[in-house]
Amino acid sequence: MDAIKNAIETVDLSKKYKDRTVVDNVNLSVKQGEIFALLGENGAGKTTIIKMLCCLLLPTTGDAKIMNFSILKDAAKIKQFMNISPQETAIAPNLTAKENLELIAEIYGSKRAEVGRKAEEMLTLFGLSDRANDKARTFSGGMQRRLNIAMALITNPKILFLDEPTLGLDVLARRELWHVIEKLKGNVTMILTTHYLEEAEALSDRAAIMAKGKIKAIGTAVELMKKTNTKNFEDAFISLVSESGVTK
Amino acid sequence: MKALAFASRNRKEILRDPLNLAFGLGFPVALLLLLTAIQSNIPVNLFELKNLTPGLAVFGLSFISLFSGTLIAKDKSTSFLMRLFASPLSAFDFILGYTLPLLPMAIAQSAITFVVAYFLGLSINLNILLALVVLIPSAVLFIAIGLLAGSVLNDKQVGGVCGALLTNLTAWLSGTWFDLNLVGGTFKAIADALPFVHAVNATKAAVVGDYAMIMPELYWVIAYAIAVFALATIAFKGKMRGDKN
Q: How many structural domains does chain B have?
């Protein structure tokens, strides 16, 4: 069944603001359980694609199927099994870490009895147990980012959008988060946007390189290096983005 | 359940911000004390408690707009609302979630205003309880104004529109500070077309036991509350679909 095979499938997905095309006829498919990286310079259209796939933004033309549900017609159904960790930390500052997690679990329909247990699990997983009852606004940037991702994972999503998940994290925290993401591999379909190319290479099964709203290439790191005849992933990225005249 | 979880979060956010409490609960009381002190030193009955208290109760509710508007606008600026927009919360859940925690706060604010007025000399009877009930549609109206403002404006703009413009409009056009008949003309016509003076008149009628006068005044407030709530819901739905992004 295609619905089982491909968790995400876009068909001529486009977004225009007046005369400016931000996403231009994007066609891509993401297999279930795959980690798929969306890469590109600032303004390439990555976040706009994520917003459309999360049903936060209507496409100008085209459609996308998430687990075979249309983002145009079935947004309410899609929202039940999908979650996002936005680029900017999206936490309630005057709630404690535990309250933030419990809030999201309850909104996604967890029973009151299991909300506390799930929150404790996430606090442990992200090393926040000792600050569980402190208000989120008192946290360091790195801790807020960890809480941000924990809030996305507490709902056990089938599809998880990670928009720049390790931005601002120190090396150790980043590696810890990589470890968490790797553990989810195969069970959760993840769309990852990042400016850290080594992160995309280490974590993702495949990557799409975007420039000026278009997909320039899709493949594994090895395939993209082969395609551009380069020796490392960064050079492959630069080669593909430069083709479109974005990088001088 | 989802709306209640969200309402619980909003209640905590508001109550954990001491500035909200100071402005929301303290400011109307401070004005009541000040104006009563003025009244005791002037020869005419300008600020009688039975007239002044309903006016200040309505005026105090204008700060509830500031709370609800600022809360939404701040949520938008921190991406928190983006996370929630991607969740299974419906527009109705959002509106309910923002409204529910503010209603008891609004009623508490009005009750405190009447309690302070009692210590200043206002007689307390069952009519005061009726006045608190009559103030509920006004509370809903001011919450809806805040929801509308917060949906379309950023937090600084909400501060300007709800914190300065709306509070002044409420004060000037509600007949709290002066009898609108003294000004008359276009000013009175505008005031009569807006809900603020009707909210004050309905509350005054409840306080003095003029029951027949309550509903004719309250219909204005209810109609405005329904209209502004509908507008806020439409604006919020638009934000959820990313129409303005």
A: 1
Domains of chain A: 2-90+158-243 (3.40.50.300)
Q: Is A62 helix (H, G, I), strand (E, B) or coil?
A: strand
The minimal CB distance from B88 to the residues A76, A84, A103 is found for A76
The token duo for B61 is 């509710």
A98-114 confidence digits (pLDDT tens): 999 999 999 999 988 89
Give the DSSP H/E element, type plus range, for residue B145: helix B126-152
Q: Is the ipTM of this complex over 0.85?
A: yes
Q: Check if the beta carbon of residue A82 is closer than 8 Å to that of residue A158.
A: yes
Indicate yes or no: CB of B83 within 8 angstroms of CB of A58: no
B21 within some domain: yes
Q: Which residue of B has its CA nearest to A160?
A: B86
Domain membership flag for residue B27: yes
Q: What is the value of pTM for the model shown? A: 0.81
A192 within 8 A of A165, measured Cβ to Cβ:
yes
To the nearest whole Å, the CA of A113 is away from the closest chain B CA by 14
Task: Look at A84 and B1 and tell me if their CB atoms are within 8 Å.
Answer: no
For A183-199, give one letter per residue: b (16+ CB within 10 A) or e.
Answer: ebeeebbbbbbbeebeb
Question: Is B43 buried (19+), middle (13-18) or exposed (0-12) by CB count in 10 A?
Answer: exposed
Q: How far is CA B155 from the centre of its chain?
A: 18
CB contact under 8 A, A55 and B86: yes
> Which are the contacts of A165, defined by CB distance < 8 A and separation ≥ 6?
A85, A145, A149, A177, A181, A192, A194
Half-sphere exposure of B88 (CA within 13 A, CB side): 19
B44, part of any domain: no
CB of B82 less than 8 A from some CB of A? yes
Cα–Cα distance for residue pair A131/A134, rounded to 1 Å: 5
**Domain that includes residue B91, residue range:** 2-36+49-240
Q: For A107, which of B6, B12, B17 is closest by C-beta distance?
A: B6
> What are the tens digits of pLDDT across the range B139-181?
999 999 998 988 888 778 887 777 778 877 887 887 777 777 7
Query: Alpha helix (H) ranges present in chain A?
Result: 2-5, 46-53, 75-81, 97-107, 112-125, 141-153, 171-184, 197-203, 221-228, 233-243
Nearest CA in chain A to B88: A79
Task: Please identify which residue in the block is written with the tokens 């506390």.
Answer: A116
